[in-house]
Amino acid sequence: MKKIIRTLTIILALAMLLTVVSACSKKKLTTVEPGTLIMATNAEFPPYEFWEESKIVGIDAEIAEAIANKLGLKLKIDDIEFNAIITSVTGGRADMGMAGMTVTEERMNSVNFSTSYATGVQVIIVRDDSPITNVDDLFAEGAFFDIGVQESTTGDIYTTGDLEEAGLATIYRYSRGADAVQALVIGRVDCVVIDNEPAKAFVEMNPGLKILDTEFAVEDYAIAFAKNNTELRDAVDDALRELIADGTVKKIIDKYIAA
């Protein structure tokens, strides 16, 4: 009888230990809304995020959904102005920022970033009859152009530092990439510097425009987090790495972008 009791005691002790370990492994992540992963984005950046009827879809939206599923969380997407995404994350209104966001030293002063999940290319959109034929024309001696960009994007950052501050251009900043392109269509600016993928969509929608063959810059996209929320950043990064390793991220990107 004593042997049976001793055995039962050991079994109960092991069961309690497994319960504690399981509880620790399922520790709830600290999020703005319990059980919810809030992603701040600007849904004006196809194919990474855009509205399709009443739903935000795209590369970032699908990757974020896959991450949320891995973490046992429900995804909520908050569509705001691009230049408000980082302040939304640092101010505790969103858990992460994901909007085709490039890792830059300036942004790293305010937020932490995940592993990069995609590569972006900044290109130049011009009218078919434009005297601008390649990126070097923007830097030529005596050159001076009016350039449209989406405010606070890397297109804005690069052209401001490389061209406007060098006295080679005036930068016109718009809240949406589509507005910058419209300014090009009606002749208010000479070109637009923007990511290659939305550039393709904008050119397709606006006859008379083209993308120059030369790139303005190449950059890495990643997810932004508040610096004080390393636990969530690490959990999302682990999930993202798994999704990259098993081919899920590539499958999502290929769905929206032709190889």
Please give the structural blueprint.
Elements: H1 2-25, E1 36-41, E2 44-45, E3 49-52, E4 55-57, H2 59-71, E5 74-79, H3 85-90, E6 96-97, H4 105-108, E7 111-113, E8 118-127, H5 136-139, E9 145-150, H6 154-164, E10 169-174, H7 177-185, E11 191-195, H8 196-205, E12 209-211, E13 217-221, E14 224-226, H9 230-245, H10 248-256
Parallel strand pairs: 1-5, 1-6, 9-10, 9-11
Antiparallel strand pairs: 2-3, 3-4, 7-14, 8-11, 8-12, 8-13
Secondary-structure element pattern, one letter each:
HEEEEHEHEHEEHEHEHEHEEEHH
CATH class of the largest domain: Alpha Beta
According to DSSP, the number of beta strands is 14
Q: Mind telling me which CATH architecture of the largest domain this is? A: 3-Layer(aba) Sandwich
* Percent of residues in β-strands: 15-25%
Descriptive overview:
- The protein is built from 10 helices and 14 strands.
- By secondary structure, the protein is α/β, with parallel strands linked by helices.
- The protein has 2 domains: about 30-115 and about 220-255, Periplasmic binding protein-like II (D-Maltodextrin-Binding Protein, domain 2), CATH 3.40.190; about 120-220, D-Maltodextrin-Binding Protein, domain 2, CATH 3.40.190.10.
- Strands 8, 9, 10, 11, 12 and 13 form a 6-stranded mixed beta sheet that branches.
- Residues about 1-5 and about 5-25 have low confidence and may be disordered.
Labels describing this entry:
259 residues; alpha/beta; D-Maltodextrin-Binding Protein, domain 2; six-stranded mixed sheet; three-stranded parallel sheet; 41% helix; disordered N terminus
